[in-house]
Amino acid sequence: MPEDSTEEIDFNELNKKAISQPLITHMYTADPSAHVFNGKIYIYPSHDIDAGIPFNDNGDHFGMEDYHVISMDSIDSDAVDNGVALHLKDVAWAERQMWAPDAAHKDGKYYLFFPAKNKEGIFQIGVAVGDSPIGPFVAQPKPISGSYSIDPAVFEDEDGSYYMYFGGIWGGQLQKFRNNIYDENNELPKPDEPALLPLVAKLTDDLLEFSEDVKEVQILDEHGNLLLEGDNERRFFEASWLHKYNGKYYFSYSTGDTHFICYAIGDSPYGPFTYSGRILNPVVGWTSHHSICEVEGKWYLFYHDSSLSKGVTHLRSVKVAEITYNEDGSIVTLDPYK
Ligand code: FUB
Known about the structure:
Low-confidence stretches: none
Number of helices: 1
Helix content: under 10%
Strand content: 35-45%
Bound molecules: beta-L-arabinofuranose
CATH class: Mainly Beta
Number of strands: 23
Number of domains: 1
Largest sheet: 5 strands, antiparallel
Radius of gyration: 18 Å
Oligomer: single chain
CATH topology: Tachylectin-2, Chain A
Mean pLDDT: 97
Order of helices and strands: HEEEEEEEEEEEEEEEEEEEEEEE
CATH architecture: 5 Propeller
Distance between the termini: 26 Å
């Protein structure tokens, strides 16, 4: 993830045009996964810090060490930082880089799902359990068996099943895996080959493990063909999210190096999903990562940008903006700076 040049940006002007402002400003937060639990909004973000690690394409400068949960009584109320909910030092298997998390609620327990690098430098996904949506969470001693790569997003379907979507290329290491097996020699496909796909697995009843083999999530173009690796304005990069609207499943994701949040629509939580457009145009900062959440009958995009840090790519701030649907179910594209 290279550092973008932001020298030419007038941040005062940009902030005036921004469709929303950071929800909190006393620390940097990113990758917001938002949920409504018991009528209140809870946001599970990454907690960005400057770990003093030089920029590189592996994203090593994203050296996060803990998670804080942000809560809001309503969409217009102040956002509250509830303090440290889980720290790297309390996760036995993890060594560094606590990246984008998500959370789920089941039977009175709350589950924080998070990626981190293990002692061998390979990303895996862990679970930590708590009695409150704001934590503290106690991590399981081992990561989820069969998990790899980054950016877990957990979707609860109406039948009570929970699915985890995950994966990310480049720093997220997805290109090192084929058929769920790691090989250091694996690389990205060629531009005219199908792009690497995000992954999905149903969770066990206790939400602590996968209940089935990890499967690929197909993202198809308008002709029913898989998107190609060279189609980098549409192909999957990272930041999976799933939500359901009017009986359809919407899989949304970041295109990474082209900086769009896109979506694809399907009839099953496993897909296939057909590419349907953009939700968010590029923000300031290299990464773009979001979640979509219904709050009191309206739909909101939780996202981040680097405007508060004046463009520092790994010092981001969580924001929220309403999204709207057209009659045909398509989503109106948001421009973060009108
Ligand atoms: O926050 C670290 C990484 O940056 C996330 O895991 C990616 O989705 C990107 O936002």
